[in-house]
Amino acid sequence: MDSVANEWDAIVVGSGPNGLVAALELATEGWRVLVLERADTPGGGARTAELTLPGFRHDVCSAIHPLGIASPALRDLRLDTVGVGWVHPDAPLAHALRPEHAVVQERSLTATAVGLGGDGPAWERLFGPSVRSGPDLVDSLLDPLRIPPRHPLALARYGAVGLRSVSSLARHRFRGDDAPALLAGLAGHSMLSLDAPITTGFGMLLGQLAHVVGWPMARGGSQAITDGLVALIEAAGGTVRCGEDVRSLGDLPPSRAVICDVTPRQLVELAGDRLPPGYRRRLGRYRYGPGVCKVDWALDGQVPWADPAVLRAGTVHLGGTLAEVRAAEHDVVHGRVPEQPFLLLAQQSLFDPTRAPAGKHTLWGYCHVPAGCDVDMTTVMEERIERFAPGFRDLVLARHTITASAMAAHNPNYVGGDINGGIADLRQFLMRPVASLDPWSTPTEGLYICSSSTPPGGGVHGMCGRAAARSVLRRQPL
Questions:
Q1: Which of 55, 294, 378, 428 is the most buried (most CB within 10 A)?
Q2: Three-state DSSP class for 471?
Q3: Residue 40, domain extent
Q4: Does residue 375 belong to any structural domain of this protein?
Q5: Rounded CA gap, 379 and 134, in Å?
Q6: Do 91 and 107 form a contact (C-beta atoms < 8 A)?
């Protein structure tokens, strides 16, 4: 990593979507930017690889990208000009309550409400205001520290119900099982107890996105998003280098700014005594969430769901009722491996034939487990899928499993297997990694953090990177 002094204005450590967006933002402003990535390929959580058999393309971490087209940081980049295409399933989501019965979330709010029967009007009342707000609500939620808020009325309407726990809201809003289960599955992405405040907000945001922009996937795999961002950076004059394992800020060539796409734990390891002791202690108090056990399958055919409606959905939740999802997530946040885990699945090859050889299919899935868990959940997950899709195991050609502990070893940003960069409860939704009006900057001059451990948190949306780059531009203009 030798370099001529002053060759770079900014160095970005880590090439996840946030690091790449930060680099692109600066490069577009005329900064000479270098991105360094320890892995052999860029992307962080947005990578695609043949994990099982040749010809089967699996997303290594992130797979479904509603924020890829809704995020202000990504939607104006014209990723289509660099080869990124979006594939929309027939329906964004199916939540299976029983083998023979799944509820489908359609793009249309009205069609979803019809499918929910007696609870349909309550679903429309819950989601109607946020759906009508369109991208305004997303813009406000993804820019949470903006004062005044970008769209205060949309944000206020959302907050009036979003701050509640899913368990509480569902008991008061709905009478049947389908609507509470569908909302619980949406909220389950938060990796919080469903009794926790703000879980309704997680569910409402994901549900709103399904109705407004859908839950698309990148054609060919999530790697396409990464490759598109790299192409834009290079077109703007930036440089991306892989296979560069940065162990210390002292390893880096001179630059005016360093932006780290890492969690607080790695930032402390990189910066050491360059960080003031008080700030280091505050970073040490940052809390990480549960882990995941992820499995990718190469299949000899499509999953034989007992309810064929599930074949219409790109994303599938196997969670059962609200009570069952709640029980599984309660076990996880209290350090127990659930006997019947909540499964989050994606069946990309049904809608994107580039993912598997002709006549074959892929299935992507994970479940939540306690942080650092080394339990292999493959058998439990396959037994649960088999219950909802008899004959599934007979179709398995190969599988690739990565436990929570292995996930942490694979990517140091996934502390304990936490793919969200830290707990996103009410306190840490805004105050991440520390309480600050500019949490992307550090007390060390020229040092910044842009990972999902900063607002607005996890997801392939690039907003953390954009905010960090704009902090650089405010504090250190060229």
A1: 294
A2: helix
A3: 10-84+218-287+412-475
A4: no
A5: 41
A6: yes
